[in-house]
Amino acid sequence: LVGDFNFTSVTRPYRQLTRKLRDAQRFAGLDRSIKTFPSAFPTLRIDHCFVSPDIRITGIPAPFPPLARMASDPLPLAIDFELSPAAS
Asked: What is the pLDDT of residues 56-66, one digit of tens each?
């Protein structure tokens, strides 16, 4: 489940989603979360990817070229993943 949710990890909707799904950024064990808003100077993480246990996060690249900062108010969020053999 991926989207521009416009909520942070301290909100009720976030807590409700993480009861059943894993936050991909936290599950990936990143040293620092990837913040996407506002695009000019990202300080908030309001775009999220939530995954089921059978999805393995293999990377979360942060491709933020100058054009991305002008194209939209949030920066793009990319998630690389693999399905576990049982899910295939």
From this structure: 999 988 777 88
